[in-house]
Amino acid sequence: MSPRPGALDGIRVLDFSRVFAGPDSTQILGDFGADVIKVEEPTRGDDARYFGATQDELAAFGGISPSFLAFNRNKLSLALDLGCEAGRSVARRIAANVDVVLNNFRPGAMAKWGLGYDDLKALNPRLVYATFYAYGAEGPLADFGANDLALQAHSGLMSITGDADRPPVRCGTAAIDLHASLGLVSAISLALFHRERTGVGQEVDTSLLLSSAHLMNYFYADYWISGNTHGRMGTANHLSVPNQAFPASDGMVIIIAPNDEMWLRCARALDAAALDRPEFLHSSARLSRRHEVVAALSAVTSRLSCAEIVARLGAVKVNVAKVNDIGEAADHPQLAAVGGVVSYERHGKRIKAVGSPFRMAATPGSVRRPAPEIGEHTDEVLAQFGLSEAEIADYRQGGAFGRIAGAPREPS
Amino acid sequence: MSPRPGALDGIRVLDFSRVFAGPDSTQILGDFGADVIKVEEPTRGDDARYFGATQDELAAFGGISPSFLAFNRNKLSLALDLGCEAGRSVARRIAANVDVVLNNFRPGAMAKWGLGYDDLKALNPRLVYATFYAYGAEGPLADFGANDLALQAHSGLMSITGDADRPPVRCGTAAIDLHASLGLVSAISLALFHRERTGVGQEVDTSLLLSSAHLMNYFYADYWISGNTHGRMGTANHLSVPNQAFPASDGMVIIIAPNDEMWLRCARALDAAALDRPEFLHSSARLSRRHEVVAALSAVTSRLSCAEIVARLGAVKVNVAKVNDIGEAADHPQLAAVGGVVSYERHGKRIKAVGSPFRMAATPGSVRRPAPEIGEHTDEVLAQFGLSEAEIADYRQGGAFGRIAGAPREPS
Fold first, then answer.
1. Residue-wise DSSP of A209-276
2. In angstroms, rounded to a whole number, what is the distance separating the alpha carbons of residues A226 and B355?
3. Which fold has domain B243-324?
């Protein structure tokens, strides 16, 4: 429990989104004070509950995947079957009284359910209505499904990731998907700011496509202006030398010395006799003698430990970093020192997770709730929004919170 | 010129940041209506003006790099030498009257210049003061320099990017840096929202480190919960099969069919005889027979064109995408269809660039100005903030807008 106010205190978010980007964006809104209601399909809930974990691992974690835990703290779970009118009716009643609605269904799905922007705007003109698409709401690929990997391929990111003599590889994390999360947070926050000044809500959206294009921004600009299409260069790039990974005696380090003064400091800090050579002095010469420079530097670095290289180059302000594995990165004390690690109890177990991706001094992020079970807060949310016990019983009979045994299923 | 209002109309941003993340974040604020004043060192300006372009290319583009063009539309450029007191004094006078200040100097630099949060807050309590750090303001690595590649190494992203039988490679684009841009937009927008409700500004920050940790979120969570540290798998991952790139007759496609129904649709759409086999039917079987499944599917896909595979699998709602190069991606009509491409005149040349990474229906982004020359708007900005001609002359004499020939240089 944080005693400090949150920037979004009192803001209520109804979140229909699933998997990564959408849930991550509402987790951030929740970290900063919003009350987030996560709508989940009553039987299985969010698919991310089972992502990336074997059956044995799921059992060990209390039936929930690390990915779900990573993206769903600070939320109430409302189990709602949108496949029946009773469920959709409850959704509309709640949406009429929240500040933000978010979904990542295929284009047209929310409108088909009477939950489109026009439907909800009529009930709630102050509503900020956010949608996360694959390729967007219109255009030739609007109806195409996609995920992070699909956009790594489509966007050209894959074409510039990997070794020159091998086929492309993926960026190891779902960068495009998670980048879209901050696109959603930005759009929703700006819309709330605009609403605070004008009194009116609006529709905002982003997509895997726009997220990928933003990450590829300067490559597309270069192509449009100069016709350049870059290729794969391992850990190196076309801008400068050295600017890549080098072998150490006990691992790898990256070393970046783009200008001549930095190169000189780098050369002298590591091995002046081997590296401080006139033919390596100028950045253009280092580019044209790339293989020589890399070979000479590699010969020096491979005799030193990562720690030694980092200490020597850090001291002379040359950009250097150890190539960490996941565990070394997660446990590095710097992350905790800047508040990048949060921890909380869930069913008696201590959960560690990455904190918010930015900090606000006067209204800091905080963890107020662990990730929920499916439908854990259904009754609490319904009461909060003023549904009477009789109404709730009717909706329940109609299948709103999950199919009643023996009840007929509506055609979807 | 857009006739529509912007969400940030009337908001003034004083931007001391350089290179990618900071300038990109203020470009987005500018797209949505903010007046952005870019402070540039009078002689060379932002280093990004020369990034990634040869001398010949720079000459061909009017002395400015595609990267700079990509991140600096909708800005006024104010040439200011922060190395002298006259320059810093002008900076303080303007900062006293803006809504947002952004910088990405090393920790302590702004405070040393009398431009720290405490200095400016005293002049302007409503100020939102944003800083973009490398590793953050405190902790053991606070004084370490870094860039995108350094954080790809430090964060563990590099360790999971590449082929299993080769050393790590980089994610081809500066994903961590550009992701931080949206962290800044989010933090600034939330702080403006909070200010609108309470009347008070605050300090916000993010860092390459927090940005990287957010992108690696679910890997760290998995490690902290289960001890898993994943490795490199080319374009594949450990979650499901098929979920990677496959060869086509004229390129590569990615195919993702994580569940059994999708796999069956995929198998039947491509070649039922070769793929619809009982031993491939279950997701766990496909995981344990990964090499067999990939080989069988590759044999099928390599006889078909990319277009054919995309058409067949798209029709049965299996996630599929062509591995595009930069040009194919930038010019794909889908991006323009969703407003992802903007274009404007600059010195008589037409510039094409990636649009905003999210959309706001009532307050859409727009291009109101091309990327500026160094100091192009110095006089305009000074007049806007009420500096008299006599004051401007004094500041000029003091070197505020660039060193006067023959004048002594202050020690820095």
1. HHHHHHHTHHHHHHHHHH-------TT--SS-SSEEEEEETTEEEEEE--SHHHHHHHHHHHHHHHH-
2. 18
3. formyl-coa transferase, domain 3 (3.30.1540)
CB contact under 8 A, B325 and A229: yes
- The per-residue pLDDT for range A219-232, each reduced to its tens digit, is 999 999 889 999 99
| Contact state of A256 with B150 under an 8 Å Cβ cutoff | yes
Tell how far CA B192 is from the center of its chain. 21
Residue A270 amino acid letter: L
Which residue numbers of B are catalytic? Answer: 177
B343 backbone dihedrals φ, ψ, rounded to 5°: -150, 145
Which residue of chain B comes nearest to A20, CA vs CA? Answer: B218
* Mean pLDDT calculated for residue range A247-253: 98
The whole-number pLDDT of residue B410 equals: 58
> Which among A8, A155, A187 has the least Cβ separation from residue B360?
A187
Chain A residue nearest residue B193, CA to CA: A193
- Complex confidence, ipTM: 0.97
Chain A contacts in chain B segment 334-363 (CB below 8 A): 334-335, 337-338, 340, 351-363
Residues in chain A closer than 8 A to B232 (CB atoms):
169, 172
Minimum CA–CA partner of A329 in chain B? B155
**What are the beta bridge partners of residue B256?**
B243, B319
Beta carbons of A219 and B167 less than 8 Å apart? no
Interface contact flag, B252 A168, Cβ < 8 Å: yes
Region of residue B367 (phi > 0: left; psi between -120 and 50: alpha; otherwise: beta): beta
More confident residue, A214 or A240: A214
- At B1 the pLDDT is 44
Q: Model confidence at A250, in pLDDT bands (50, 70, 90)?
A: very high
Cis ω before A333 (30° cut-off from 0)? no
- pLDDT for A409: 59
- Touching check for B298 and chain A: CB below 8 Å? no
* Mean pLDDT computed over B327-356: 96
Contact residues, chain B, for A313 at CB < 8 Å: none
- pLDDT tens sequence across A352-389: 999 999 999 999 999 999 999 999 999 999 999 999 99
- Is residue B294 less than 8 Å (CB to CB) from chain A? no
Please state which CATH number belongs to domain B12-215+333-397. 3.40.50.10540
Topology of domain A12-215+359-397, CATH: Rossmann fold (3.40.50)
Q: Work out the average pLDDT over B382-405.
A: 94
A 54-93 → B contacts, CB under 8 A = 57, 60-61, 66-67, 69-71
Of residues A269 and B284, more confidently modeled: A269
Q: Is the pLDDT of residue A3 over 90?
A: no
Instruction: Look at the block and give the residue holding tokens 């069988």.
Output: B296
* A290 in B contact zone (CB under 8 Å): no
Instruction: Label residue B336 exposed, middle or buried (CB < 10 Å: 0-12, 13-18, 19+).
Output: middle
From the candidates A35, A99, A148, A177, give the one annotated as an active-site residue: A177
Residues 176-235 of A with CB under 8 A from B: 178-179, 182-187, 189-194, 196-197, 200, 202-207, 209-211, 213-230, 232, 234-235
Distance separating alpha carbons of residues A169 and A268, to the nearest angstrom:
36
Report which residue type is found at B304.
Answer: L
Give the percent of chain A with pLDDT over 90. 88
Section A23-42 average pLDDT: 98
Span A284-296, average pLDDT: 94
**What pLDDT does A1 receive?**
44
Cα separation, A87 vs A80, in Å, equals: 5
pLDDT at residue B55, as a whole number? 75
User: Do A12-215+359-397 and A243-324 agree at the fold level?
Assistant: no
Domain range annotation of chain A: 12-215+359-397, 243-324
Average pLDDT of the residues in B232-254: 95
